[in-house]
Specification:
Aspartate Aminotransferase, domain 1; 6-stranded antiparallel beta sheet; globular
């Protein structure tokens, strides 16, 4: 399979039950961070806002969600029931996907990226 060029292509190449989950994650992130742009990075659906915001992708048995290490750390208490690593969390397909948590993490990452961008622009003008 060729690497998808768009999120639409990425989702279209998944099994039907996974397509629904991926589309819902996409909608949740778009609603949480309306100014974010969509792209494919590292072969995965990615949202950007002053840098990478979150990535997500389909695996055989779980949804991979990649909100960077800060996104994992900030929500560590809410992610305890999921397998996670420094910058990733796995949401198993056989459990309800925590869309509200995904929304909160995306919003957190947006604020974080915007604050970093503002700090950088402030330093340049000083």
């Amino acid at each position: 399979m060729d690497k998808p060029a768009t999120i639409d292509e990425y989702i279209a190449n998944q099994p039907p039950e996974v397509k629904k989950i991926l589309q819902k994650v996409r909608e949740v992130v778009k609603t949480a961070v309306p100014n974010a742009t969509e792209t494919i990075t590292y072969g995965m659906p990615t949202f950007k806002l002053d840098g990478n915001l979150v990535h997500f992708g389909a695996s055989k048995n779980h949804l991979g969600f990649y909100p960077t290490p800060s996104g994992i750390t900030a929500f560590a208490d809410e992610l305890t029931s999921y397998k996670s690593s420094k910058g990733a969390v796995q949401f198993p397909y056989n459990q309800p996907i925590p869309y509200e948590l995904i929304s909160k993490i995306a919003q957190f990452r947006a604020v974080e990226n915007l604050e970093k961008a503002a700090a950088k622009s402030g330093k340049r003008s000083a």
